[in-house]
Amino acid sequence: MTIDSAVMDSDAVTHHADSYFAALDRAVAHSHAWLASLADRPIPPRLGADDLAAGLGGPLPDGPTDAASVVDRLAECVEPGLMAMPSGRFFGWVIGGTLPAALAADWLTSA
Predict the structure, then answer these.
(1) What range defines the domain where residue 51 resides?
(2) Cα Rg of the chain (Å, integer)
(3) 81-109: per-residue pLDDT in tens?
(4) Are residues 83 and 45 in contact, defined by beta-carbon separation less than 8 angstroms?
(5) What is the largest CA-CA distance in the chain?
(6) Is the separation of the CB atoms in 54 and 95 below 8 Å?
């Protein structure tokens, strides 16, 4: 039995896997948009920490929230507070970065 066939053997497991896939698909879409914006976007964040916290705050939902929706909300709320460090135009200080293979490897370890 392969991993793929084991996942498909159970409706519950398939539904669970679909939740991961949908959330990861949204994360990929937001990551692609972020990377595509780096050449033209301003380097400094457009919002400060207090504004970001206010955007993420508020009452908690009454029940579960779809994982893909959580990813969308997080990406939309924090994007204005991100600094375009990987743009190639950021010369502030050295605090890290990533290479394509390193980012993909990080995703694999998180899965």
Answers:
(1) 3-110
(2) 18
(3) 998 887 777 777 666 667 788 888 888 88
(4) yes
(5) 52
(6) no
